[in-house]
Amino acid sequence: MIGPPRPQPADDGDSDDAMIGPPRPPLASGSVNGAEDDGVMMGPPRPPPTDDSEDPMIGPPRPxxxxxxxxxxMIGPPRPxxPPGSRSDESDSDExxxxxxxxxxxxxxxxxxxxxxxTKIVSALAVDHSGSRxxxxxxxxxVQMYDFQGMNARLQSFRQLEPSEGHQVRxxxxxxxxxxxxxxxxxxxxxxxxxxxxxxxEFVKGDMxxxxxxxxxxxxxxxxxxxxxxxxxxxILTSSEDGSLRIWDVNDFKSQKQVIKPKLARPxxxxxxxxxxxxxxxxxxxxxxxxxxxxxxxxPGWGSRPDILVEKGHSDDITGLKFxxxxxxxxxxxxxxxxxxxxxxxxxxxxxxxxxxxxxxAQTNIAFSPDxxxxxxx
Length: 378
Fold this sequence. Notes:
The protein is mainly beta. It contains 1 helix and 22 strands. Residues 1-109 are annotated as: Disordered.
């Protein structure tokens, strides 16, 4: 029986007496009173039978059966790592070894910013000794001055200079105390600026009609390079297309202290394309337009005769020179697409030659890392 129990008949045996409780529902069609076909249904009607596949769902929806797919969403705890020696373990090991190799050299690659201040190639860069100010020079004839301590999110320079109108900027160099900097352009006259970009002076230009360069007070053709003395804040070095190197006192802009003429295979004028001091300021290196390397040691009574001469250092113009801190190694970069490593104690042949390095600009130079385990070039 479905539904609440049927009430018992009265004791007087009269089934037609008043019914106690809710009215009895009518008999189903086709049934006879008192027959036991289906009986009278009590409660809500029974839903009609349906196929098993279409049974109505009672309660919350049944979760879908997981598909047999390796890429499906994982249910339960994470899958344990593969055993040592598997392919994934080897891949992780390779990634770790690559990271360790980068950490070994400590190359600063984690962060960078892009300073957009020039319209043509950047030909010169100089960072002061505190690392707070950066100078950049360009073929657009300008110098941009950046101060990292006062820089905002726009990354703009705080000052722009045009040292010599219509002349490319070829080199920039801070003084040892970072209170001044040297600017070398394609003109014959180098300039000195203070830390804030104010002009302190301009070196004199020589008389272009005097044939002997030692008798001129300054360069007579465009400059190619220049560097401040690494130890003495009053001394700078410049090189020029006129075929000479000159040492200057920054307190006297009217005349140089010393004129250096390279040794040439034949008489004439060959440009000095680049120059460099060693770390102690006791030696000078010059790259000559004929591909020769020449080094002078500054000592009492020294003159223009080089102490070291490599006539065929490169097959084209030399664009960059750099001494190691101990003064034993010299790096040279050239238009011939090579970078050479020289031991100054044995200069007959380079220690190492790196070739197939494109060089399209006369200011392509080189630099050592702080620990001198690496060097880089443009």
